[in-house]
Amino acid sequence: ESCHVGMESTHQTADGKTDKTLNISCVDCHGGDGTVMRPANTQPGDPAYEAAKRRAHVAPKFAEIWQGSGIPERLYTTWLQEDPAFIRFVNPTDLRVVDIACGECHGEIVRAVKKSMMTHGAMLWGAALYNNGAFPIKTPRFGESYNYDGYPQRLQTVPLPTEEERRFKGILPFLDPLPRWDVAQPGSTFVLRVFERGGEPRSEVGLPNRFEEAGKPIVKLSPRGLGTFLRVDPVFIGLQKTRLLDPMLSLPGTNDHPGDYRNSGCAACHMVYANDRDPMHSGPYAQYGNSGQSFSGDEALQMAQKRGERGHPVRHQFTNAIPSSQCITCHIHPGTLVMNTYLGYLWWDNETDGEWLYPKRQRFPDPKDEVESLLRNPEATSLRGLWSNLYPDEENHMGMKAGQNFLERLWELNPKLRKVQFADFHGHGWVFRAVFKTDRKGNLLDANDRPIDPEDPDKWRKAVHLRDIHLEKGMHCVDCHFSQDVHGNGKLYGEVRNAIEISCTDCHGTLTKPIRRLRDLVTTGPAAPERGTRLGVRRTPFGEEQFYFKDGKLFQRSMVVKGLEWEVPQVADTVDPNSDWAKRNPEKALLSRLAKTVQVDGKTWGQVPKSEDDWAKLAHLSNDLATDKRLQAKTGRRAMTCVACHSAWVPNCWGCHLPMKANYRTRKLHFEGEELRNFTAYNFQTIRDDAYMLGVDGTVTGNRIAPAHSACAVVVSSQDANRQWLYYQQQTISTEGLSGTAFSTRVPHTVRAKETKMCADCHVSDRNDNNAWLAQLLLLGTQFANFMGRYVFVGEGEEGLEAVAVAEMSEPGAIYGSSLHELAYPDNFRRFVSGGRRLKEAYEHPTPAYHLQARGEYLYVAKGHKGFEILDIANLPNKGFSERIVTAPVSPKGQRLFVKTKDARYVGVPTTQAVDPTRTRLPENEEQPIHLLYGFLYVADAQEGLVVIGNPPGDPNGAGISTLLDGNPQNNFIRRARLKDGSDAFNPNGVLKGARFIKFVGIYAYIVCDAGIAVVNLDDPLMPRLVTVIGEPFLRGVRALDVQFRYAFVVDRDGLKVLDITFPDRPQPVPDAFVPVKDARRLYVARTYAYIAAGKQGLVIVDVERPDRPRLDQVFNANGQINDTHDVQLGIVNNSLFAFIADGKNGLRIVELMSPRHTPGIFGFSPKPTPRLIATYKTHGEAIALSKGIDRDRAVDESGNQIAVFGRRGARPLNKAEMQRLYLRDGKLFTVPDIRKASDVFQAIASGRLMPPPERRFARR
User: Fold this and answer.
1) Among positive and negative, which fits the CA dihedral 682, 687, 689, 691?
2) What does the alpha-carbon distance between residue 351 and residue 820 come to, in Å, rounded to a whole number?
3) Cβ-based burial of 1226 (10 A; exposed 0-12, middle 13-18, buried ≥19)
4) How far apart are CA 901 and CA 903, in angstroms?
5) Is the peptide bond before 159 cis (omega within 30 degrees of 0)?
6) Which residue, among 471, 468, 465, has the nearest Cα to 444 in the 3D structure?
7) pTM of the model
8) Phi, psi torsion values for 78, nearest 5 degrees
9) Cβ contacts of residue 879 below 8 Å, gap of 6+?
């Protein structure tokens, strides 16, 4: 104390206790020599003072790192290698040494925290390993924990959980450290060709393999077994070397960006750091800035304060008044729940308003800066942007000099920005944008739903920032998540919500059980104790009761801001027209009552249930978790989580590219911390908030209907030491064969009072204008978020095929000539434009190609009279190969992927995602089976009809085409399937003559043929069954079709026509749904627009928001340049949408349909396209067909068959019966009025759509 004069008391409790009254001295916690006194008349910096300081303090093992008094940047495993005595000195709350300090008084909490999910992080590791096929068990088995000496250790739940607790409570028996990545055997990635058996010893430096063929390098990762050399699983590498959710509580924050300043252990939360200047996020700490500096009264820190040293808490003082900004130091990532949504923020898309964030002069960081920057921010696009802080002397595209600490000052740009507003926190070095209220066309709306002029200088003040309503009331995270939620309960959990004890109903009550007494405030969530935790006894850090009643109303006081309080509305009061709350909020009460009491007939409402039989009549079952489980068992229907309706938006990450490079030598971020080759960047691709989706929640949380989101649609790449791409932008497959394009149910933390979900957000509207919206809600997908990748495959008939490079290979993968290309690669863009916007890089193959489809490392090709073939495209990006596309990399004795047919015109794949229905299943994973339909390919042959491609079940080479996914290069043989009737093609009575196109609608194949559209049931793919044929007079000369939820959009010789496929086995023509198009050839439907390849007309864009009333939106042909269109496919890159057009004799065209720079309303669900031609490739032959991209927004098919993996055990998309409950009643379509305000309710009653509620007073009104 002779040195630390003026330092505030570390312990300052509401009852007045301090360090002194508690008899706690510095050395009791920190260690060191407390007998050393400050020499008289000395100041910090004086030699005598510094000498005394060295005697009193504990010396570090790595003195060169500790140059100041703040926590250094990015310590990671150096922290674990430090002397525990020094760790205790720097931070006595660190989990290695916490028992010595905090544990003396807070032992139970300390023991719980050591097993907390915030410590072990099992949720992300478990999901990443299972979703990408690296580990066979869905329940997490690995977590992070260290002993006193810094060595990894196993965690165990004591006593061991029972089987019932494991399944229904999600309690784990143990968690082990991650296995070393260099011996981890590959799982899903085993299906990639470089992981296959075989190959010769690879060349080494100074020891070349003289038998290596020129133009055909040896690329196999090991001539030995799995787990040897580089034949190891890259998922394990990424988890240990790439900053994902790291660091967790065992390590201090990286302390290098706003949003990254914190310590380890207890101090990570209870010692507040300056991370964010927004008062809504930081409360009273906002005044201290965002750069982790000290504002302590401690004289010993004066020098650190003067030089602006970072890595210090605001004060040397523990607090329970923890602002949300402290929580956001961790919770900003899909693995840590993306809780920045609570604040109303989402990752920036690396494009919108990018003219302010990219240098106008293209920069290339040197290797040292590149690696250093990626360690700070693993997202590689930042290397080209000013937010990496690498280019302080550069100007942005607007002519503004970046200056020092550009990222830290980014918030100050907000007044100048046109389309986005940025947050002041930047964890991981990332940029976050605010989410605002828009309509589905993207128009910015004010609080009264009136459009805001984009040029209005006051628009950001008028706009509605979609923060959670609880935040707007003043609630920080700690005002809802109390002691057990943040500390844990000493048990291990592998899913985040399994460890949560609070639920919405604990504070807001239910429809029939309001909270009327403090003793009713009891937790009931999944991790709540048997009788719940009593919340009514809690007190704030300021000594007041946290909850209290006043005039019969429940109020809650803030844990962070003294004097702030708010009323806690009761659900029961919102449906009682006589309640005080309803009288104060009549419109809200009316809408709430309708939503909560409407019955399954869709008309009766207003009656509060009095028994479980009454509950069973309600359309929306929603109660506390235990009651919901009983209601589900009683009714056979799914109950709903509160947030299924009460969420304004969800964050969707439509894709993430993880490229691993061998020439990056970096440290492991966990465990031993060795420095080894290989590093994987973490490049999110398309981040949007425009789509809302529903799924079935996990087993522990009751399998209720809950919001779902795209969690991590991963594509992976790997570059070897010779800078050869061994694989590039490849999909992953989850352990049991579902696509690695992962989805997950979640609690979005975007609760709003007005911007919530209403009737027409989940049911078919009376206006029939939400078909696309519902397609996405049900996870059927809308083809809007598709991923084309760097290479677009073009079929040229008898002239062969070409793979055209359309994008930059580095991050961001901007399409050549696009708006993003101009921002991120200005020099490359100028050269491209000056060269006539001509694409130059392409790789050809001479085989005929009338249609083609790429999936994984294979290209399926319909070759007309030469049959069907699967080509190998594994080495397409590999510069070492002279022939990039081959029929086989080995002799025909090891691979034969050719099937003879008479006239193959089209290759039908049930999904463009990589799935494998033949994999072994473990019951404990609780996964649905994958329909066998997905194991085969389907060829439309103009003479033979439908030809099924694939081996029969039980074949030694594997069923279907699974032989291509088993990692064995010796059995790659496929054949034409022998159908169960003994034939080898399906063409009953010749009805499929002229077959030329296939579209899958669940288990049904809609086959275009001379007769029209034949609907074939493929529930058993080896026993096809003709269901019906739709032909003349309605359809004449059908060319193609596309499908979206309840409608099929068909192009024939007349133009665009529509079929109602509410019942896919009984498609019905929609009268008067017609748009004439002279020469419509193919089409692509994305959300509310149909894009038609229309020959000489070019690209015809039709508005199909109301499918029964399609209307021409525009015709685009780039002033006549696009005049021979045969096919069109769409793909999205960052925040721009592109059309790839097979333009016949002109070759491949690329049209930018939407971009932040050129498209008003870019953040809408379906903005109006603003097409412009940006690039052309002149093909060798006529471009007549294109390969479709990966459907990244689709998790289930129209028959309810799951395609994509879901996080959380027991979670899944809705099945067919659950989907149909949203739009069928008694086997017939039902629709709902679009009710948004009270007047809509009265109008619905007047029209007979709703019955009046029971009370006569309302009826008279």
Assistant:
1) negative
2) 6
3) exposed
4) 6
5) yes
6) 465
7) 0.97
8) -60, -35
9) 723, 724, 725
DSSP state at residue 909: -
Q: Which residues of 65-103 are buried (b: 16+ CB within 10 A; e: fewer)?
A: ebeebbbbbbbbbbbbebebebbbbbbbbbbbbbebbbb
CA dist., res. 761 & res. 30, Å (int): 57
**Sign of the CA dihedral with 1163 first, then 1164, 1165, and 1170 last:** negative
Q: Could you please report the per-residue DSSP string of 449-467?
A: S-B--TT-TTHHHHS-B--
First vs last C-alpha separation in the chain: 74
- Residue/partner pairs of 661-664 with CB below 8 Å, 24 or more apart: 661/718, 661/719, 662/718, 662/719, 662/720, 662/721, 663/719, 663/721, 663/723, 664/371, 664/374
Contact of 420 with 348, CB cutoff 8 Å: yes
Of 672, 645, 663, 836, residue with least CA distance to 752:
645
For the chain, 1261 residues long, the average pLDDT of each consecutive 10-residue run is 90 82 91 94 93 96 95 98 98 98 95 98 96 96 98 98 98 97 80 87 77 90 88 93 93 98 98 99 99 96 94 97 98 86 98 99 92 95 98 98 98 98 98 98 98 97 99 99 98 98 98 97 98 97 97 98 98 97 97 97 96 94 94 95 98 96 94 94 96 98 98 93 95 96 97 96 98 99 98 99 98 99 99 99 98 98 99 97 94 89 99 96 97 98 99 93 91 96 98 99 99 99 99 98 99 99 99 98 99 99 99 99 99 99 99 98 98 99 99 99 98 99 98 96 96 72 44
Tell me the one-letter amino acid at 121: G
926 residue type, one letter = E
Residue recorded with tokens 């580089």:
230
Q: How far apart are CA 643 and CA 701, in angstroms?
A: 13
Sign, CA torsion 841/847/848/853: negative
Q: Coil, strand, or helix at residue 659?
A: strand
Domains of the chain, residue spans? 26-115+249-305+318-329, 339-465
Q: Structure tokens of 471?
A: 């935040």
Tell me how long the chain is.
1261
Tokens of 176: 């082990």
